[in-house]
Specification:
There is one protein chain. By secondary structure, the chain is of the alpha/beta class. The protein has one domain: 3-Layer(aba) Sandwich (Arginase, Chain A), CATH 3.40.800. The chain contains 10 helices and 10 strands. Helix 8 links the parallel strand 9 and strand 10. Bound molecules: zinc ion (ZN). The site of zinc ion has 7 residues, from loops.
């Protein structure tokens, strides 16, 4: 059977423009677009649609929307030292959140087997009441809430492999036992959260799994962590759909972070996640772009991940070894010490 993979791509995302030299710039999506061009004939286009207030208000407070609207009236302006807003930014941010909702919804309904939303601005740092870290609205959190409340999707796994911790997403779901949030990220690093002992709160305790990684981690650490930690955690959780906060800023050429993941590493990560989706939730898998600030890294990584989504049978990467004393072994043991009692087989390849 031919694979059906949706793509959200919209030139309007280019009209969110900040100060000269800002890394979160329209050229990022031009780089993603170069990867899409070669594959566009195989992809099902999905038009971007602005998220409406009720959708945003499932994640954000009314005061946050008012603050955004007030800021848009005095644009261009900054919401924090990193986060800018121009006259078009609010409309563009609504298009990013709306696209995440529609992509995830189409995948949940079976319109496509998988999909990728190439959106700006990113979302995972946006808190309920605060824009931060280039993010205005939390696109992936808005999508997950829509699926839960409108589409009857009970259990959602959000994997966040952006190099930064998704503080906003974690906080959105930290008391929710039905959304498992798993994040791999450079640590200590912006935004400062995401340590091993942040595991969720109240009824959500255990449904947040953080893998803070030292600078310099590459393909072996990313893929090994997914094989040894994500896979058993997902099997224990049994998601009905998998969302990926798909940042490409762990790429070795990224100017903001200090990780060493290659395009092949992202392909192998996508293989692990696609196989997991097929095993656990009929393949339902939706990826939403987050960060990634090197144009070559964005182009290479997007192409690598899309090829895995499109392939008839992309296979699985070989199990990454975790010898004693290795960084991977250290990470696995730390996570095991926190989550081991709850998750059968955690740490095993
Ligand atoms: Zn990032």
């Amino acid at each position: 059977m031919e694979r059906s993979v949706a793509i959200v791509e919209d030139p309007r995302y280019g009209s969110h423009e900040g100060p000269a030299g800002h890394p979160e710039r329209p050229a990022r999506l031009e780089a993603v677009g170069r990867a899409l061009r070669a594959r566009r004939a195989s992809l099902a286009p999905l038009a971007a649609r602005p998220a409406d207030d009720p959708e945003l208000l499932r994640v954000h407070g009314a005061s946050h929307l008012e603050l955004m609207e007030e800021a848009a009236r005095r644009a261009p302006c900054r919401l924090d030292p990193d986060t800018y807003l121009c006259a078009q930014s609010l409309d563009v941010a609504r298009l990013a959140a709306g696209a995440a909702v529609d992509l995830a919804r189409g995948v949940a309904r079976g319109d496509w087997q998988a999909g990728f939303a190439a959106v700006r601005p990113p979302g995972h740092h946006a808190e309920a009441d605060r824009a931060m870290g280039f993010c205005l609205f939390n696109n992936i959190a808005v999508a997950a809430r829509a699926l839960r409340e409108e589409d009857g999707v009970g259990r959602i796994l959000i994997l966040d492999w952006d190099v930064h911790h998704g503080n906003g997403t974690q906080h959105s779901f930290e008391e929710d036992p039905d959304v498992l949030y798993v994040s791999t990220h450079q640590f200590p690093y912006y935004p400062g959260s995401g340590d091993f002992d942040e595991i969720g709160r109240g009824r959500g305790e255990g449904a947040t799994l953080n893998v803070p990684m030292p600078p310099g981690c590459g393909d072996a650490e990313l893929v090994g962590v997914l094989q040894r930690l994500l896979v058993p955690a997902a099997r224990a959780f049994r998601p009905e759909l998998i969302l990926v906060s798909c940042g490409f800023d762990a790429h070795r050429s990224d100017p903001l972070a200090s990780m060493d993941v290659s395009g092949n590493g992202f392909a192998d990560a996508a293989r692990v996640v696609r196989a997991l989706a097929e095993e656990l939730c009929s393949g339902r898998l939706a990826l939403v772009l987050e960060g990634g600030y090197a144009e070559d890294g964005l182009e290479e990584s997007t192409g690598a991940v899309l090829d895995v989504l499109l392939a008839a049978d992309p296979g699985l990467p070989e199990t990454v070894a975790a010898p004693p004393g290795s960084t991977l072994r250290g990470l696995v043991e730390r996570v095991e010490s926190v989550h081991g009692p709850r998750i059968p087989g955690l740490g095993a390849p």
